[in-house]
Design brief:
Length: about 375
């Protein structure tokens, strides 16, 4: 068979090591998995019923490529009610195939070959290959010495090293994998630097409804003219498999991002859009019981792990702990494999999340309290033995 010439940018990418690791350790008998970022709650009943009604009404055809007009209106109303942002549903809102679809369409639309994208780490790694596939160049900014918060000074320093190609900044908050988030003052500081250098900001706020203390502040409110906000119903309404995300931003940017989305998916799935319409229109507070449960789990885990000899971030949102490993165990891949095989607990190596991540592991507490109790008992025994 002859060798087929493939896109070299694709060939250079490796499959997700997070998914690969999760699949590999899943074969271990009796393992407690605290790996993937998947809510362990069912989609609310009223949302499922709306999807069923749409199917029974034969809503099984193409929708407008930017999404159902009534869903875009509901999304604009939701974002304004929750975060004080104002978007025209006709020109400034796009329905995407999950937040992932929004990331892909946005970076593809805004990047020219050689453009530089600044990515604070540790961070969920998906932004990296998508930037590279679009021909962009990634510059990592390690935030591990600053409480996992990107400072304006570090952003400015990174831009000064790439002044001619600086194009965009990626933010994700509350952050996967650390659970930290940004307040208004911190966002205003970053916005000042971004404006000074003409940077666009891709602000992935998919965990916004899982903010524990205070109210989530959107970058779309702080710097609306240069920010593309990504959100959706995956985490807020336990709808990861429905694949409905939202992109919101300046009309001229949304127009271009919408082209990429149309070329790649035509439109989001019709019945899933009707489900999302119900979620955003009549389930604005559906995340509240989940948020309370996640907070309780966090408040159990942090002291339990500390008692076992493991310190972690104190998350203000999402459902992750980023746990610092003792010096004798700082190889996060080695630790994760050993913990899985010897103790029957699966966590994600921190090295998967970029510079500043090694020496940590990510624990997802989107799991039952029973599993968390079992996991902490096993982790404590493992730490005593090592």
């Amino acid at each position: 068979m002859s060798t087929v010439e493939m896109n070299e940018r694709v060939r250079a990418q490796k499959p997700s090591d997070i998914l690969g690791f999760n699949a590999e350790i899943s074969a271990i008998d009796g393992i407690v998995k605290l790996t993937l970022g998947e809510p362990d709650f069912p989609t609310p009943e009223h949302v499922k019923e709306a999807a069923i009604r749409s199917i029974q009404a034969n809503e099984s055809h193409y929708t407008p490529s930017r999404g159902l007009p009534q869903l875009r209106q509901a999304a604009a109303d939701f974002l304004e009610a929750k975060y004080g942002t104002r978007y025209d549903p006709d020109t400034q809102i796009l329905v995407t195939a999950g937040a992932t679809g929004g990331i892909y369409s946005t970076l593809t639309a805004i990047l020219n070959p050689g453009d530089t994208v600044f990515i604070p780490t540790p961070i969920f790694p998906l932004y990296i290959p998508i930037t590279q596939l679009a021909g962009g160049s990634v510059v990592f900014i390690d935030t591990s010495d600053d409480g996992f918060i990107l400072t304006p000074a570090k952003l400015e320093a990174a831009i000064q090293e790439h002044p001619d190609t600086a194009k965009a900044l990626v933010l994700n908050f509350p952050t996967n994998p650390t659970g930290v988030t940004y307040n208004r003052e911190q966002l205003q500081g970053l916005a000042q630097v971004a404006r000074a250098h003409g940077l666009l900001v891709l602000s992935d706020e998919i965990y916004s409804e899982l903010t524990y203390e205070g109210t989530h502040v959107s970058m779309g409110q702080v710097m609306p003219e240069r920010t593309i906000v990504l959100n959706g119903v995956s985490k807020s309404h336990a709808m990861t498999g429905w694949r409905i995300g939202l992109a919101a931003g300046p009309a001229d940017l949304i127009e271009q991002i919408g082209k990429v989305s149309e070329f790649s998916i035509t439109c989001a799935t019709a019945n899933a859009q009707y489900a999302a319409l119900e979620a955003l229109g009549h389930g604005q507070d559906d995340a509240e019981p989940m948020r309370q449960a996640y907070r309780e789990r966090r408040d159990f885990l942090v002291p339990a792990l500390r008692q076992a000899g493991l310190e972690s971030t104190d998350p203000q949102g999402a459902f992750y702990l980023f746990v610092k490993l003792p010096e004798r165990m700082k190889d996060s891949w080695k630790f994760a494999y050993s913990l899985a095989r010897e103790a029957g607990v699966a966590v994600i190596p921190g090295a998967s999340f970029g510079p500043g991540g090694d020496g940590y592991v990510r624990i997802s507490y989107a799991a039952s309290m029973e599993d968390l109790r079992t996991a902490t008992e096993r982790i404590a025994a493992y730490m005593r033995a090592h």
